[in-house]
């Protein structure tokens, strides 16, 4: 078989492994059949967004019916059930979480849980467009870290990639977030044909401001009107290219998340690589995701979900909790998407529909 071109990932599909019949007793109520303890919830507060990134959603996306979206009160109750079952970290996401009306009320309630020790950490992933408005309130509410998605420092390229976004608003948001004392990490999607031109500037920019930069391989999630095979660039390939200009050293640092880190000697900063296509990282996965409609997904790379909304809306916390625990038993061993020369094996829903 001929070698794949460097931009395409060999899927190296995971052999199907049957889960053990009994879960190990780890003392964590949310332990899956492989013994992985789930302590981390990514909670989407909306599937709406004020941008239309070309790798994330279609130019005219179909959003969830409004009446399906959980209220702020329901989101807070649901988060409370997860916290009562061992979840220690919550990341709010979307869509764009800061476009959700009432989101600050939710953040204040969950921030209080950080204050009284029920949560270790509350974080947020945002596109940064409204960070300028909210940064001080986020810090006051107990958020210490935010991830800001930023794929280009060129205003025209940013405008094109986001289908209409304005870079200066995001840069202002970054200034205000740092001024408010928030730790900011920049996330950039490694979009082929773009990241090669942008990456050096992003490294200098992020590290010059004391921020980590993490690059993420494009994942085949949802229809965006673009062929994933032309969007995908292997980070193994990009790393080799970076190594011709930068002195990179692998770091042992591993957060609970999927990133591997490099030190860039010239800047002293950290560069994270998230490589779901080139390398698997599922064996330590400690997270689940809940959509804004209350659907529980135990894996980003599988379509299977369980709807928690009926039990939650019926005011039945015990039934909701029982559903969560049952669903956890079905958490797959790993994701199953891939991008090859011939096809992209993906998932129907977008990242924005579930929460990145
Ligand atoms: N709107 C917020 C933002 O952009 O940060 C939060 C939601 S967004 C869906 C979360 C993250 O998912 C962003 O960093 C975005 O770049 C990333 N993302 C979206 N679609 C993706 C895809 N198909 N492959 C890889 N990353 C993707
Ligand atoms: Fe919106 Fe974030 Fe998706 Fe971009 S990546 S369209 S900002 S949800």
UniProtKB/TrEMBL annotation:
**Which parts of the sequence bind GTP?**
42, 91, 125, 185, 287-289
PROSITE patterns to which the protein is assigned, alphabetical: MOAA_NIFB_PQQE, RADICAL_SAM
Q: Where is the Radical SAM core domain?
A: 33-259
Ligand binding ([4Fe-4S] cluster 2): 282, 285, 299
Domain of life, per the record? Bacteria
- What does the entry list as the binding residues for S-adenosyl-L-methionine? 55, 95, 149, 219
Q: Do you know which Pfam families this protein is assigned to?
A: Mob_synth_C, Radical_SAM
Q: Which CDD domains match?
A: Radical_SAM, Twitch_MoaA
Which residues lie within the region annotated Disordered? 1-29
| Enzyme Commission designation | 4.1.99.22
Binding, [4Fe-4S] cluster 1 = 49, 53, 56
What does the record's cofactor remark say about binding?
Answer: Binds 2 [4Fe-4S] clusters. Binds 1 [4Fe-4S] cluster coordinated with 3 cysteines and an exchangeable S-adenosyl-L-methionine and 1 [4Fe-4S] cluster coordinated with 3 cysteines and the GTP-derived substrate.
Q: Its family?
A: Belongs to the radical SAM superfamily. MoaA family.
Quaternary assembly: Monomer and homodimer.
Question: Its biological function?
Answer: Catalyzes the cyclization of GTP to (8S)-3',8-cyclo-7,8-dihydroguanosine 5'-triphosphate.
What name is this protein filed under?
A: GTP 3',8-cyclase
Record the organism.
Answer: Tistrella arctica
The coding gene here is moaA
């Amino acid at each position: 078989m001929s070698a794949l071109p460097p931009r395409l990932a060999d899927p190296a599909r995971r052999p199907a492994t049957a889960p053990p019949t009994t879960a190990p007793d780890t003392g964590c109520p949310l332990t899956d059949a492989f013994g992985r303890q789930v302590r981390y919830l990514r909670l989407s507060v909306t599937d709406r967004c004020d941008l239309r990134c070309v790798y994330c959603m279609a130019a005219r996306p179909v959003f969830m019916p409004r009446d399906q979206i959980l209220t702020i009160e329901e989101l807070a109750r649901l988060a409370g059930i997860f916290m009562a079952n061992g979840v220690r970290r919550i990341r709010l996401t979307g869509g764009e979480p800061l476009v959700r009306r009432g989101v600050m009320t939710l953040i204040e309630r969950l921030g209080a849980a950080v204050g009284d020790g029920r949560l270790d950490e509350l974080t947020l992933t945002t596109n940064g467009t409204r960070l300028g408005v909210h940064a001080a309130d986020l810090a006051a509410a107990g958020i210490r870290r935010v991830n800001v998605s930023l794929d280009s420092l060129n205003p025209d390229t940013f405008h094109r990639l986001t289908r209409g976004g304005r870079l200066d608003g995001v840069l202002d948001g970054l200034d205000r977030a740092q001024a408010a004392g928030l730790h900011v990490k920049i996330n950039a999607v490694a979009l082929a044909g773009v990241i090669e031109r942008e990456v050096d500037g992003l490294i200098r920019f992020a590290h010059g401001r004391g921020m980590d930069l993490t690059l993420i391989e494009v994942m085949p999630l949802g229809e965006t009107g673009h062929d994933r095979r032309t969007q995908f660039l292997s980070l193994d390939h990009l790393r080799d290219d970076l190594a011709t200009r930068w002195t990179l050293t692998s770091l042992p640092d591993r957060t609970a998340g999927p990133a591997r880190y490099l030190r860039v000697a010239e800047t002293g900063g950290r560069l994270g690589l998230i490589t779901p296509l080139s390398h698997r990282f599922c064996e330590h996965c400690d997270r689940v995701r809940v959509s804004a409609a209350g659907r529980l997904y135990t894996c980003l790379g599988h379509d299977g979900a369980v709807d928690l909304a009926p039990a939650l809306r019926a005011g039945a916390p015990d039934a909701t909790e029982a559903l969560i625990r049952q669903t956890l038993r079905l958490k797959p061993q790993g994701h199953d998407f891939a991008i090859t020369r011939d096809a992209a094996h993906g998932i129907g829903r977008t990242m924005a529909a579930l929460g990145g």
